[in-house]
Specification:
This protein is α/β, with parallel strands linked by helices and 278 residues long. It is 34% helix and 19% strand. The chain has one domain: 3-Layer(aba) Sandwich (Rossmann fold), CATH 3.40.50.1820. α3 crosses α5.
Length: 278
């Protein structure tokens, strides 16, 4: 019985690994900001980079859904492992094609990360037929959650995501923001107009896509009010959304095993994705 249990666990692990193999990496070029690229450097696991790329993990048995993930890093770099690539196998096993966006850093040039997110959405839609994509969402963690919520509130007909998933997101640029993210995105002395433009709880409309939001109440880096006020704005405008607050966990847990509510958020998100897929 014990040997059978170990065999089943091993088979599941192998299945998960195989489901996320052979990723496809593409460079994203936005002609509007291409001249800025040599200046915009960020870090990935300690290494510098300056080009926007998209790493795509096609689902072996696609269910029609796809996700573009934006890892966090305070708009100074990106935490690509536990907030990015580590989730690929789990999403693939659900039939979801998954892509990790290595977006460029702004250094006060606020339009650059959003430009890269829009390019990623365009690319996935343009190539959607080959991966069976019918519903495309944007996902982000921390500052990547700000980028994802910006993409979900600043769009045109071509770049609107169909849904959004936010892990402990920076949402606002007002009093309860993450100051490092704000400074890196907008600069040290942004105008009130720019602060309002990138305070995404103020940009919600009836056209904002459905949202799944997660946050820990004891997050000392990004106050939980970012998620709460965004959720209230979504509710005010009749946007179908779900918010999940956990009493502990702090900030930056992503796909880490150390987060005590990992099994819970995975179960809740999986159910939510099935609901919006109906």
């Amino acid at each position: 019985m014990i040997m059978r249990k170990f065999f089943m666990i091993g088979a599941l692990m192998v299945s998960s690994i195989l489901s996320a193999q052979n990723p496809i990496q593409v460079k994203l070029v936005d002609e509007k900001t291409v001249d800025e690229k040599p200046m915009i450097k960020g870090w990935i696991n300690g290494d510098e980079y300056s080009e926007a790329t998209l790493t795509i993990y096609p689902a072996k048995n696609p269910n029609g859904q796809a996700i573009v993930a934006c890892p966090g890093g305070g708009y100074a770099g990106i935490a690509v492992t536990h907030e990015g690539h580590d989730m690929a196998a789990w999403f693939n096993t659900q039939g979801i094609t998954y892509a990790v966006l290595h977006y460029r850093m702004p250094y006060g040039k606020h339009e650059i990360p959003l430009s890269d997110a829009h390019q990623a959405i365009r690319y996935m839609r343009k190539n959607g037929e080959k991966w069976g994509i019918k519903q495309l969402g944007i996902m982000g963690s921390s500052a990547g959650g700000h980028l994802a919520s910006t993409a979900a509130t600043h769009f045109d007909a071509e770049t609107r995501p169909d849904f959004q998933i936010l892990f402990y997101p920076v949402v606002t640029m007002t009093d309860y923001t993450h100051q490092g993210s704000k400074d890196n995105l907008l600069g040290k002395n942004p105008s009130e107009e720019l602060v309002k433009l990138y305070s995404n709880e103020l940009q919600v409309t009836e056209q904002t896509p459905p949202a799944f939001i997660m946050h820990s109440s004891n997050d000392d880096a990004v106050p939980v009010l970012n998620s709460i006020n965004y959720y209230l704005a979504l509710c005010k405008h009749g946007v179908w959304s779900s918010m999940h607050l956990y009493p502990i966990g702090g900030h930056g847990w992503g796909y880490n095993e150390s987060f005590p509510y990992k099994a819970q958020w995975k179960d809740e998100l999986e159910k939510w994705l099935r609901e919006i897929h109906k």
